[in-house]
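Reading a protein record of the kind used here takes only a little practice. The record below shows the convention in full.

——
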Amino acid sequence: MSESRPNVRPLQNIMITSRDFAEYLTMFALDENRIRRDRVLDCAAGASDFAAHARTLGATVVSADPLYDQEPDRLRARVLLELQQGEQRAQEAAELYDFGWTGGLAGYLARRRTAATTFLEDYAQAWRTPGGRDRYVPASLPRLPFEDRAFALGLVPNLLFTYANLFDRDWHRASLRELTRVCHEVRVHPLNDTAGRLYPELDQLTAELGEEGITCELVPVDYQLRREPSQTMICRRAAATAR
């Protein structure tokens, strides 16, 4: 289990993140064929370009986030502001990160900016297109506006355990219960908070979910944004308990 760094505090607010398609594949241990084949929910998607890129491959992806009730110009201003704040965080808490896979901090920040730009362009287009807003649904856990088993795969980047200091175990359990209601399979990454600490109630949480017929498996992944070992959690609800 990794320890939080004494001079790095967990964030007190949820930040909008701008991860790119390649990062999603690596951190969730996926390939393009799986993305093309399955109907995918990205929750909470933030300002990532995953959905925009996946659709160019013919995939069906719905992004969910409470941010998506905002018109494009207003959301653009917020995303760009938080992109600057994220860059400052990356510089100030550099000891948490391993930027080797991006060629250093400059490469990492460039990827964030590119992903944000792609997202904002796609979001604005969806906002103007009839039916396009179905791509970006304003919604927040632990209640989602989707039918049971609406998606084959659910991806949860940088929310659940990332902000363990802001949400209690009951919220995490309710969120994973809801995600496994609407998705056949759910993948969550990372399992560490914004100070680098592994979610301390993970064993208890997975035991409680197991009692409800939801299995949770931890798998190592190659994604190495942080210095600690990287894992993704895969959750599935037993067919007999699906609602």
Notes: The chain has seven helices and seven strands. Residues 181 and 242 are 6 Å apart (CA to CA). The longest helix spans residues 105-128. Helices lie at 21-27, 32-37, 50-56, 72-92, 105-128, 169-182, 202-211.
